[in-house]
Amino acid sequence: MHDTHDARGAGDAVERSGEDPVAPGGGALPDPPAAPARVRGEVGGEAPGGAAGETAGEAAALTPHQHRVRRARAALHARRERIRADAHRNRVYRAVVGALGSLVVVVGLALVPLPGPGWLVVFMGLAVLGTEFSSAQRLKRFGERQVHRWTRWIARRSLATRAALGTGAAAGGAALVWGYLAWQGLPSWTPEVVTAQLRWVPGL
Length: 204
Fold this sequence. Notes:
By secondary structure, the chain is an all-alpha fold. Helix content is 73%, strand content 0%.
């Protein structure tokens, strides 16, 4: 125990004097082992394995189109941050996004009963709203899950069942359109050719 304390004290004295440490029996003590490369990299603030080199390699592997997309996203993000820094401009921006996204959602819902990509338009509107409103983003994800679940359920049904469901949906959509037109009448902007054809429909 005393030998250990003496050795530590001698080592501390030598370090303070700036001389090379000497072993108790004479001769210089061996140099301490060098720190592993991984530890040196971590102490120096670099990731083990050369993360910077890997990042540069990944960037070099991108196609020109991917580079353009990255630059466009970075520019949009920087512009959005500049708008966010101004409270007035930020409110105006969110109001415009809310109005535009809501309009797209309403148009999509109006197209759902008709043949065409009605639900796709709805999800596009929710995606626009989701860029600024987290509730719209959650609603979009919920709707996507329900659509996937419905698609899987339909895919397991027979061809006759799918045809019956499609016919029923088309008939229901047509009934909704007819009821609305019978209640409100034809819009004033309806082309004359369409108006002449719809006058033959009972109730219009």
